[in-house]
Amino acid sequence: MEKSRLIQILRTFSRKENRDLRKWLQSPSHNQREDVQLLFEYLIENDDPKQENALPKEEVYQKIYPGTGYDDAQMRQVMHFLLKSVEEFLVYQEWIEDPVKARIILAKVYRRRQLGRLFQRTLESARELQEKQPLRGLNYLENVYFLEQEEYNYLSGLRRTVPLNLQEVSNSLDIHFISTKLRQACLMLAHQTVFKVEYDLGLLDGVLQFVEERTFLDNPAISIYYHSYKALKGKDSEAHFQQLKQALLQYEGLFADSDIRDFYLLAINYYIGRMNAGEQQYARPAFDLYKRGLEKKILLQDGYLSRVTFRNVVTNGTLLEEFEWTEHFIDEFQQYLEEQYRESIVHYSKARLHFEKKDYDKAMPLLHQVEYDDTLMTLNARTMLMKMYYELNEFNALDSLLESMRMYMRRKKFIGYHKLNFKNIIRLTKKLANVNPYDPKQTKQLQADIENANPLTERRWLLAQVESIS
User: Fold this and answer.
1) 237, 271 in Cβ contact below 8 A?
2) CB 248 within 8 A of CB 267
3) How far is Cα 173 from Cα 142, in angstroms, rounded to an integer?
4) 3-state class of 301 per DSSP?
5) I need a labelling partner for 388 at 20 to 30 A (CA). Which of 15, 39, 419, 429 fits?
């Protein structure tokens, strides 16, 4: 029973949502079955996600239908009716989340019933609500288009010649489409960079040209997504990134936290890309952006901080030797990690902190304590061990580790630049371990190989080791 859709959905509900759902089920308009209410109450009171088989069907059935033999068909039926009511409740909750869209839908109902005055009054109230909205993100732009489209549907149905708002419909559609297209292009480009897949961006070239020829950059959403795309694309990226930073500061209050999080992550991805290219001067501004996003809780999504962001923050902080701040971050923000990943992420993060502080006696045991399910985290952990073995002159352990990393990568599926990056790390570390420090030709060749390898996240460390033996 625990694997059913019904239980999976109910386990995501907050206490308030449970209270609201109870009221929903008590209304005859939504539910007329007492057994559905009884099932809901029993599940809420007795479900325990941490306990295996906490909800045996036969036991649940007896609580709903006491004194009767178990009937699997009836049990499935009552679960089906409760699931249907829960899904209808969720749809309703989503609908009322946006009062402007709700008014637009109501206006549409009045229009179809040919209730002209009610339509006009409702659409006007929707426009007033829309203008009172403090946010100007994609949802706002979509609602502008829906308002104009509904106005046109009404005017075009009148049996007399009246001015039509076709231009307003077209303008609002352009703005909504362009901003949405640019956002999608940013997401595709960011994903393409990491996973080395090629996407067909469709109309994007025409959209970019259209934006550049008109005054669309005055629109906050279009401005931010346009400069984000241009910065990530590479050509004149620094100039566009500065424009993006300026737009973020200017328009931050006009977007929902979810949009701001996307903007921050796009900016951080730009910094990470430059850092991976060997431009370590971007570490400090990336760190400052992480700090700002964490202070405002912008980087949290549905109350959680992604494990990737958590690891990146620790990596960035230790790279800059912000050890005290990083330790405080690990302690304070580990509560926002998903429980299933928390222990391994915290062990890994503390290991990296001790490693960067050169406290290898504390770092090594932490790296050996936990098995990592995440492939990249496993390889990053082994990379730390690799660097410690080299610096401690434990070359036999280093050789075994490098071979185990190579075999591990053969077993795992890798996407994008990660595979090439770790191949470069293994290859160049082997060369480093075997180079003759008294042969200037060899060391210079190794230095050139390191400088030319791309991608190579450990470039700075490798070059430092070459310099120390030259």
Assistant:
1) no
2) yes
3) 8
4) strand
5) 419
Quote the percentage of the chain above a pLDDT of 90: 72
Residue whose pair of structure tokens reads 């004149």 in the numeric block: 236
**Are the C-beta atoms of residues 181 and 138 closer than 8 Å to each other?**
no
Quick one: pLDDT at residue 306? 92
Q: How many residues does the chain have?
A: 470
Q: Quote the Cα angle for 414-193-459, to 5°.
A: 75
pLDDT of 392: 95
Contact 311, 326 (CB under 8 A): no
Which structure tokens are listed for 73? 């068909």
Average the pLDDT over 322-328 and give the result: 97
Alpha-carbon 199 to chain mean position: 20
Q: Please state, in angstroms and rounded to a whole number, the distance separating the CA atoms of residues 235 and 331.
A: 40
Smallest CA-to-CA distance from 330 within 365, 356, 364 is with 356
Q: Torsion angle of alpha carbons 116, 119, 121, 122, nearest 10°?
A: 170
Alpha carbon distance 295, 292 (integer Å): 5
Could you give the CA distance from residue 126 to residue 256 in angstroms, rounded to a whole number? 20
Residue type, 158: L
Helix (H) and strand (E) counts in the chain? 23, 0
Q: How far apart are CA 227 and CA 222, in angstroms?
A: 8
Averaged over 386-415, what is the pLDDT?
90
Q: Which residues pair with 24 in a beta bridge?
A: none
Write out pLDDT tens, residues 253-264: 899 988 999 899
Chain position carrying tokens 């310099």 = 467
- Please give the C-alpha separations between residue 296 and each of 188, 252, 264, 395, 451, in angstroms, as whole numbers: 27, 12, 12, 46, 38
Distance CA 436, CA 394 (A): 17
With vertex at residue 451, the alpha carbon angle to CA 450 and CA 456, rounded to the nearest 5 degrees, is 65
- Indicate the domain borders of the chain: 5-96
Residue with tokens 């649940």: 60
**Mean pLDDT throughout 243-260?**
90
What pTM does this model have?
A: 0.79
Give the C-alpha separation, 276 to 282, whole Å. Answer: 10
For residue 263, give the nearest of 244, 288, 281, 242 by alpha carbon.
244
Distances (CA, A) of 98 to 133, 136, 150: 11, 14, 17
